[in-house]
Amino acid sequence: MRTISKKFLSTAAILSLVACGGSGADAGSVESAGSRSSSEQGEVRSISAKDKRQGAEAHPQLLQEFGGAYTGPQSAYVVRIGQDIAVQSGLGDARSDFTVTLLNSPVNNAFAIPGGYVYLTRQLMALMNDEAEMAGVLGHEVGHVAAEHGRKRQKAAKRNSLLGALGQIGAAVLLGDSALGKLGQEVFGTGSQLLTLRYSRKQEYEADDLGIRYLASAGYAPDALSTMLESLAAQSAIDARVAGRDARGVPEWASTHPNPVQRVSRAAKNAGKLGVSGGVRNREAFLKNVDGILYGDDPKQGVIEGNSFLHPDLKLKFTVPNGFAMQNGTRAVTINGSAGQGQFTTGPYNGNMTTYIDNAFKALSGKGQNISYGEIQRTTVNGLPVSYAIGRVNSRSGQVDVTVFAYEFSKTSAFHFATLAPAGRASVFSSMYDSVRRLTAKEAAAIKPRKIDVVTVRRGDTIDSLASKMAYTSYQKDRFLVLNRMRSTDSLRAGQKVKIVTY
């Protein structure tokens, strides 16, 4: 969450855009060709003007949703490799047809949208161990667009009213009519986080196959996607083990895809079927470029530590109840749980808290509609002046309480929670409301960014000795092994390069 005030981002347009998918070609032509890429069939399909226009429209919104573009030296490298692999799809006739972006996001994710827009998060890049793995992930995402999986998903989403896509209490409650649908999309902001997570098993396998073929046609080792999937499966296992210590609710890339183990073996088998021996991995070049990349949360946007969110610049902290998870974004911190959902964000403030709360409800209500709320209550929390109000809305599945709980940090700045819970259960967030407080200067200064440090193994170094340098207090060895796609039985050799996470 950045320090500047931003209006709630409506993800409805983004979800609709990406769900349309494709480049205007018939998806059947891809499937009937046994998942052959267009370039292999001698076909180059120009990206339509409509797709370019819609992609350009969604691009700045996606940047806002995923932490903005990463500005480190790694960006140019990702752009070059991403454009090289995207061209293999035949969706455009030049590298310049594709806009590839490295995102400043601590979530393992990658996706592509119509118009030639391809995205990779710095966190997922840090998990990779060579250039071919990065090309494989980007190729997989481009494969979804090439096969027009989004168009098919849109039809399924219409049949299911998007309930399955959101999969939370707010979905069933809020998608019954336009005003509440907007509320659900804007409060929870999950639309763009879930853009690439709801394909069918068949579609995921087809995107894997296309990504593998793109790798081979670009001269990379075609088994690179399978090794990346192996690392991702291992990272998912660690995330599950530390659940409750790192309350990050949005799933990593591919978390709802087919069984990870089965998918790894399938990708490796299909890569072997191509009959391509060798292929470029470019490990040294990749490690040189990933060295120094930011890892985990960006303190400038706040950090998540266990169940707490801390922002060193804003000098504030709050803690979510047990059973709830958080996802930090540029405009807000999203809170999700089975008992309710919400966001912590800000808005323009001129010293009038009544106006501030009214504007917050209006932002949630949708154009031309309003949520009726009760009398504004006032109190203090940890020395901060607080104002709050609760509204109640009807839905097909019952009544829902909508709460705006706002804090005055100065005469010109305020922050608030916007939460949803089943009627009569708004108190589920009481401990969270009461936890908001200012950070001391010492506490704020103690929040430091983590980064990837590529080191050269020296004589006498062991996995245990290097793992002990990882900037974590728990699971140091496990994190080191996953980060380097190693097993505990592996041995290190002098001169070998490995990644560690340092401050």
Automatic annotation (TrEMBL):
The lineage of its organism: Bacteria, Pseudomonadati, Pseudomonadota, Alphaproteobacteria, Sphingomonadales. Its cofactor is Zn(2+). Keywords: Hydrolase, Metal-binding, Metalloprotease, Protease, Signal, Zinc. Residues 1-27 form the signal peptide. This is M48 family metalloprotease. It comes from Parasphingorhabdus litoris. It comes from the Bacteria. Residues 28-41 have a biased composition (Low complexity). CDD domains: LysM (cd00118), M48C_Oma1-like (cd07324).
